[in-house]
Amino acid sequence: MRKSFFETITQSASTDKNLIFLTGDLGFGFIEQFIEKNPNQFLNVGVSEQAMLGLANGLASSGRKVICYSIAAFSLIRPFEFFRNGAIAQNNSVMVVGVGPGFDYSQDGLSHYCLEDLAIMQSQPRVMIKTPFNPEGVKQSIEEFVSNPQPTYLRLPRNSDNSEIVDFQKFEPKQIDILIFCTALMAKRAHKISQLLNQKGKSTLVGSLNELSLAADEKLTNHLRNAKICLVVEDHYEFGGIGSRIGDLILSNNLETKLIKDGVTMIPKGEIGSFEYMENKLMKPIQELILKITNI
Known about the structure:
Number of domains: 2
CATH topology of the largest domain: Rossmann fold
Low-confidence stretches: none
Strand content: 15-25%
């Protein structure tokens, strides 16, 4: 996912000299080609994320398109006020890239986790939220920002699962027992749940969206109309994430679809470990979800 991101911004900056890339002292091992090809469109502000967002808004006010890059907990949560009062309030062309959302940095603990980014960003009007679940979605997210610059948050996992995920914006709705919506890093878990439900004779469809927007909501609502149950599997706190957004869609459209959320249910403190270890620690047991679904 990061490889796709840097390849795309490098290519885009070569053809659009108004595109500026700022980093909070992160991205080494990926960033060198961008610096080599576009040296005058890059600045490392150091470990100073508030300054990065303030500088970005100033550059955007002068006609630049600015991409700010760091770990999600640092690029979004730490300097959020600067993003809100700056680019969001002034409708300026700044993209904040949150690398490693959820508990992607599993071994680094709470300081590096970002389990509330979607709740924060969905609270802000007029912000484009990009949630790519494959490298092509990352490429598309950058290209759309360059062609239609606006305040944007890009939720960028470090890597993606090879599991097949349907794009709900492109896939035609069909009658299904359980519609499973998953974020990029939850694809493996979503497919495991899907397989267990299939064994019980339930039809399932695992999919996602590359953005959260009104246009995407319309497509997703059509899928919800055709599903008896929607299960949302996300690396985010259960309240305020995609599950909450889908709950609003079900209510506002008077749908009969039942909603089940599978997100993070506790503050991630204490012992830390691999991604799988933290998944098992922070989220519900899969068998508990299967039982809940089959009892509906």
